[in-house]
Amino acid sequence: MSDGSTPRRKPSAADRTVEGPVLSSALAALLDEVHAHAGAVYLLAPGRPVLEMAVMAGLPRTFAAPWERIGLNAPFPLAHAVRDRQLVWIGGEEEMARRYPRTSVVVPYPFAMAALPLVTGQTVHGAVFVLWPASHPPELSAWERTRLTASCDRLARQLEQAAAENRPVRPGPDLLALPSADEAAGVPDPAEAARLVARLPYGLIALDPHGRVSCANPAAAELIGLPMDKLLGAPLWTSVPWLNDPVYEERYRAALVSQRVISFVALRPPGHWLSFRMYPSTTGLSVRISRTRTEEEEPSRDAPEPGAQRTGLMTISHVLNLAGGLTEAVSVQDVVRLIADEIAPAVGSQALMVLGSQSGRLHVLGHRGYQDPRVVEMFDGIPLSAPTPGSHALTKGVPAFFGSRQQLERLYPGCLALPDGFAAWAYLPLIASGRPVGVCVLCYAEPHHFSANERAVLTSLGGLMAQALERARLYDAKHRLAHGLQQALLPHSLPRLPGFDAAGRYLPATQHMEIGGDFYDLVATPPTAAAVIGDVQGHNVTAAGLMGQLRTAVRAYTTVGQEPGEVMRSTNRLLMDLGVELFASCLYLRLDPASRSAVMSRAGHPPPLLRLPDGRMRVLDLAGGPLLGIDAAAAYTTTRIGLAPGSVLLLYTDGLVESPGTDIEDAVAALGRRLGEVGDAPPDELADLLVQRCMEARERVDDVALLLLRMRGDG
After folding, report:
1. What is the full DSSP assignment across 18-78?
2. Crossing angle between the packed helical segments 20-34 and 142-164, to the nearest 10 degrees
3. In this structure, what are the phi and psi dihedrals at residue 138, rounded to the nearest 5 degrees?
4. Which own/partner pairs from 361-368 qualify as long-range (CB within 8 Å, at least 24 positions apart)?
5. How far is CA 622 from its chain centroid?
6. Distance (Å, rounded) from C-alpha 570 to C-alpha 556?
7. What pLDDT digit, counting tens, does each position of 366-406 carry?
């Protein structure tokens, strides 16, 4: 400790910070260079996968309120640019709607956008986005790309140097109104300009980028019905009661973002319709107000009904953006992941925990951000009757906000035993369909003041999270049921066959109930064996149940010694007798290791592939019969093929080769080439390699079954 006698040292370079104007100046120069009208610089939050807005230019920061903080996993162009370390270009509103539908819901305006990472080597410092008016061409030109990349590289190097010298980077002042050369040229005498505007018979109003009235002529005050002193200096939407509606404010936002002329019609009580036409620039908007041609003219489809409910636009923007993500969440872990990646960063939370209730106790459904997992374990199993904020929020259905540890300790002294390391908490009860389904706990590293507006937003989000969580828990229950049924119907293990090594794989579809009718089986009937693979139409419990019946039937017919063609005919008649009106494809093989051959019968199934010992491939396009379940009198021919030691037979269902926009013959040929390349691998490893593409696919519209048979040399 100092005794006060140590002289104060001079500040060193390491004590300096990178002043905010550096970011503001860099952003302004970038926008000017590529002729963009708005943009923002984000910095990566220390120790967290979150981008935080440091400075914005050209538009009010409130326009980007849903994206003040962006998780790196969020479906947003800026996060995408950082994840892929490359420029992301959005050429217009249609492309935004296609690639980022949730963002498009919040900003459904025509504009062009580029998002770039601020990266040096493998280090991410932040990101930048830039907006152009709707008039920008749909493609980014080469010179724009070059200038954007060079400017971002230059700024990234500045940030890297600041980090190396331990100089923290401070957010800079926003640049709301970018100067326009066109507006500055030929400015008339102010007094003469005022007289010119005052003589006009229609209303003229100047709005700054925040929507505040900076100038108005007498005709505008008369048309609106307010004295001039009530208009000047106030946002138009709050000073004029009948314009205080999000729909009208939305028109102003659309004009500023797209830099397009926007018009709308509004009703001035009791029955006068006024036409508003907004002319935007980077410094604000000019608004022309006039009466409609007839008092009976209908309002535009953008005008709200008189007396419609009015609410804060930015609250709607937040909820629209985050609600879109919650509707996409499928499982409970999807809900937890989305809350952690998007909602928590948006509200400034550093950690979260989602609790559910079962058998009168709280249970942890998921968490993120806790340094010590043992702290989370202390919440698991707490009785709902215990005096804790989580149990009270769940049982009473009332949110609780604690801005400091002192507030929490005053009401819940027992929480002293939970050293979670945080300083503020929001406990949000998750109520869906009138009943509690859980609690979301948001944690803050520093003391946090929860304003009335923030509490309202968090409470609203709690309702949306509750609905998503209820859907997810129902989905998880159905998924467990479907998965258990599927596993019960498929073989748990494959028997060891004389003369053959075998491997099988099954992948459920990622849509529907993740249950389907694909199946495979091996039946040992020494000294021979039988193999079967099939696909029952549909992806539901009916298809899975029928698949189980067919698999059992094939086993029974095989065990009593029926030949391959007769097994197929018997199975076909069974399916017809069941009267389920479902079809099935099937491929059946009788394997004879002594003669090193196989007898096959096919019912509308994809052709098997044969890899010869020297690596050459054959597609066994065998003769056969129609799908099972179509014709009770159908006959199924058989084909005998030879199998040399080292040969590999690949049986599969169409889910392995079919994909939208791909020719089935090309897909089978590609599968054959893949088998030829990796066919020397052991059967289990080979099976994994062949289904790898399907496993990595984000969406599988069909389930996949695969059965591999390799002829051993000891057969």
Report:
1. B-HHHHHHHHHHHHHHHT-SEEEEEEEPTTSSEEEEEEEESS-GGGGGGGSEEETTSSSHH
2. 170
3. -70, -15
4. 362/390, 362/391, 362/394, 362/439, 365/332, 365/336, 365/438, 365/469, 366/332, 366/333, 366/335, 366/336, 366/337, 367/336, 368/336, 368/340, 368/344
5. 45
6. 10
7. 898 888 878 888 888 888 888 889 888 888 888 888 988 88
Nearest alpha carbon to residue 245 among 220, 261, 268, 223: 268
- Mean pLDDT lowest among 58-62, 285-289, 587-591, 648-652: 58-62
**Would you state the structure tokens that stand for residue 696, as one six-digit string?**
């990595």
Distance CA 518, CA 544 (A): 8
Task: Taking residues 415-441, report their average pLDDT.
Answer: 81
* Cα gap 422→447, rounded to integer Å: 8
* Mean pLDDT value of segment 436-453: 87
| Strand, coil or helix: 414 | helix
Mean pLDDT of 664-677: 90
CA-CA distance, 711 to 503, in Å (whole number)?
12
**658 compared with 70, residue with greater pLDDT:** 70
Question: Is residue 18 within 8 Å of 169, Cβ to Cβ?
Answer: yes
Instruction: Give yes or no for a contact between 42 and 51, defined as CB atoms under 8 angstroms apart.
Output: yes
Q: How many CB atoms lie within 10 A of CB 157?
A: 13
Write the pLDDT tens digit of every residue in 85-101: 999 999 988 888 778 87
Residue 420's φ and ψ, nearest 5 degrees, are: -85, -10
- Please tell me the distance from the alpha carbon of residue 209 to that of residue 608, in angstroms, as a whole number: 67
Dist. CA 101–CA 709, nearest whole Å: 46
Alpha carbons 52 and 44: distance in angstroms, whole number = 6
- The answer to whether residue 596 scores a pLDDT higher than 60 is yes
> What are the tokens at 248?
């009208």
